[in-house]
Amino acid sequence: MGKSMKMPCVMDHYKVVILGAAVVGKSSLVMRFVKGKFHECQDTTIGAAFFTQTICIKDTVVKFEIWDTAGQERFHSLVSMYYRNAQAAVVVYDIQNQDSFQRAKTWLKELRKQAPPNIVIALAGNKADLSNIRVVKFDEAKQYAEENGLLFMETSAKTGLNVNDIFLAIAKKLPKNNNNQGSVNIKPNGNEPTQATKNCCK
Ligand code: GTP
Ligand code: MG
């Protein structure tokens, strides 16, 4: 447990849901972002798991409340509970797996129909460390993202590539809530700070 620091900041809370086929690395991305760790044998998610992570952008503290959902089909009907009132979604596919890219497109269509209309959506092509055996082309996914108004990055939960950056890009695109103005206490939780975190609230 670290010490807490008192900082004069604006606090914004956002609910983010992580979606995608099984085994694409959703939980691994969340582990990397929240704990700065990667496990070769990450347990499959049952239902959903909840995490929080706080980053700072200039004088704003952004607290992400993250729902990491299960990719297995048997949990599909549950997942709508998690995106229904989300402000942001990260839809993940595996760059080595064409079916997972198709599944990501299906999730995106479902989000457009059923999620809040102003939801910020990022598409993450994960396992970018395995780029030499990719089947989903970078340009194909980028074009799809542009045509559909999505943020897009290839990520690697294993190396950390673009993991903080994709959440930072989401935070920058989200409208300001300003739902908690004044001093806030930030308890460092041992996470690897993002560049933005290091410059927090100066
Ligand atoms: P479900 O919970 O079943 O939906 O799967 P998930 O999408 O949460 O995948 P998970 O994070 O459990 O990762 C599945 C496997 O992929 C694990 O063996 C991870 O170690 C591996 N993995 C995840 N991300 C990466 C990555 O960026 N690169 C590599 N090489 N392996 C990864
Ligand atoms: Mg999982």
From TrEMBL:
This is Ras-related protein Rab-5A-like. Belongs to the small GTPase superfamily. Rab family. InterPro entries: P-loop_NTPase, Small_GTP-bd, Small_GTPase. Pfam families: Ras. The keyword Nucleotide-binding applies. PROSITE patterns: RAB, RAS. GO terms for molecular function: GTP binding; GTPase activity. It comes from the Eukaryota. NCBIfam families: small_GTP. Keywords: Nucleotide-binding.
